[in-house]
Amino acid sequence: MVDADDLEQLAKLLTDKRQLAEQYYARACRLVGQAQATPLAAMLRWAGDTATELGNRAAIVRAAEKGGDPFGALSEFGLSTALGAVSGEDRTRLTKDLKSVIARSATARPEQRTAAIRTFFGKLTAAEQASLAIEQPDVVGRLDGAPATVRYAANRLLIERAVAHEQKDLAALKATDPKNPQVTLLEKRVARMTEFLRPRMTGDGGSVPRQFLLFDPAGDGRVAEVFGDLATAKYVAVMVPGITNRLDNYDSIANDAVALLKDRASGRELPESAVITWLGYDTPEFGDSVLPAKAEAGAPALHSFRAGLEAAKGAKFALFAHSYGTLLSSKALQEGTPFDSVVFMGSPGLGPTIKSAADLELGPGTQVFAMRAPGDWVSYTEAHGGDPAEMADIRRLATGRSSGHSEYYTPKNTGLDNLQTILTGDGCVQTFMGSPKLDDEQFGAANVRVLIKELQSRVPQWKVGELSTAFEPIITGVMNGSTDIPTLTALTTKTLADSGLGGYFAPQDVAQIVGRSLTEAGLDQR
């Protein structure tokens, strides 16, 4: 087994002896001439090069002891592998200095904090940047403002370590408790992370390493991935997903990003463009999706992430938010997070105080759009305020053949064409031309909106999430026209009882709520 300390000691021995060897070389030049002393010069070069190489190997070995392939992670993204130029004292100093910069800027605004990080890395040598990537990958990988390639390398190393760790956990669980439900979850997580280490195929038949600006496997997992060349991109889209998205099902978000970046006509990737998937917050499940807490916690993280992004000079940035991600994005925008264009898709609302785009107080010239596909019941509920698709100062876009809550990125469709047009600024968007009345685009939509609000008003806030989860099948039935009034009343009563929420309602309440939802939605109760 190679010992890093032995390698470093040998490198130091060669370096220490170099001064004496140089004296011998100088004396030989005087006695026999420089030409005759050439073999000594070659020996000196060998000693110097060998000492450097031994130092490089020692640094790689030391990092590899923690898991993963540090050399591979660095070389994959074109970073320096000449780590021998960074001594042990240098590594200690770099770690201390980075920690100090992070601490000093902890309370600053994201723009100032990321600028401080960017300045710090800008003063480092290529070898020092690479050294930090493999010595402090858990810090550098998520560090907004650090160079993208340095973060890519750090996160690749973290992914390799996480795969090894969770494979070990999975094997142990299968051996001791093979029927445990966690086995399936772990298998999905390991499969996703293993895919992260494989090259991504591009539209021209080539392949590139996958590029992550964030990777954290803790809990449900957090990920931010770049598709395209961020360094040269003039058009950048940041995708913010909504509820139930996590590490084990992240492939669906990645597929949407690939579709967004793919040119419809040529099949190649859109030129000078990059797409970033930002799953950088703890997404809610149905149970807590009606509470704003996770959006409020995630908004500062999105602001910081955007502040740390660098692309080509003058690049345009678009924000594509979906579902609960629209609420989080709304809060981030209200904090001053800058984007040139914003699209809200399938939004449950932007917050109770947001009645128009003007309430977001966006920068001059920011374009704001919204999409609502027929049958998107999440948007119909208005769980977090008014639907931006119905706000007068927000331009509603056509969604083509998309329906329901999760088809906004469907390939070769009007909805995706609109998103690509906004990303690149090339062409004209197609505006929604249908009736603004909910029930003209989906039977029972207005009924669902009022029904949900009435039910939510009767239960404590901490129970609203359970209510939404329980009523999803009923909502679907109402919208597709398969549920008549007596059936709706019976199903509502049964669902409340089965979910343990019946105690909040008197027997006559259900009939009154159903009746009120029909009356206020303008539907005939006969």
From TrEMBL:
Residue span(s) of domain DUF1023: 216-381
Pfam families: Abhydrolase_8
Organism whose genome encodes this protein: Microbispora bryophytorum subsp. camponoti
Gene3D superfamilies: alpha/beta hydrolase
Name of the protein this chain belongs to: DUF1023 domain-containing protein
InterPro entries: AB_hydrolase_fold, DUF1023
